[in-house]
Amino acid sequence: MDYLLGVWLSGDHWRVLAFQLIEGGKLPGIDIVLGVISKDISPVSIYAFFMTPQPQLMRAGKMASPIEWLISDCDPDAVAELARNL
User: Fold this and answer.
1) Three-class SS of residue 54?
2) d(C-alpha 25, C-alpha 28), whole Å
3) Does residue 3 have a pLDDT over 70?
4) At residue 49, what are phi and psi to the nearest 5 degrees?
5) Which of 32, 48, 54, 80 has its Cα between 20 and 30 A from that of 39?
């Protein structure tokens, strides 16, 4: 399925949050991760999750944020597992 996180703005239009996009399209694995997040979670909380380094996502001995993890083309299922618990 295709997923992108957006926020509703006044004036009858949606704004897609840019962190999900890279040059040439969508962030790799974003559909998998967004697909498991409860619809009750606020866009602000989801954004914060993607930007915050997670101890379960280690790269080169350092914690990576979900966004860094996905940009590096690492396994999106690892991020999805964390996202299920939001």
Assistant:
1) strand
2) 9
3) yes
4) -60, -50
5) 54
pLDDT, tens only, 30-68: 999 999 999 999 888 999 999 999 999 999 999 999 999
pTM of the predicted model as reported, rounded to 2 decimal places:
0.83
Domain ranges of the chain: 6-83
Residue with tokens 């380094």: 53
Residue 24 phi, psi dihedral angles, 5° rounding = 95, 0
CA distances from 59 to 39, 51, 75 (A): 29, 15, 12
Alpha helices in the chain (DSSP H): 30-36, 43-51, 66-71, 76-83
DSSP state, residue 27:
P
For the record, the structure tokens of 48 come out as 């914060």
**Backbone phi, psi, residue 83, to 5°:** -65, -30
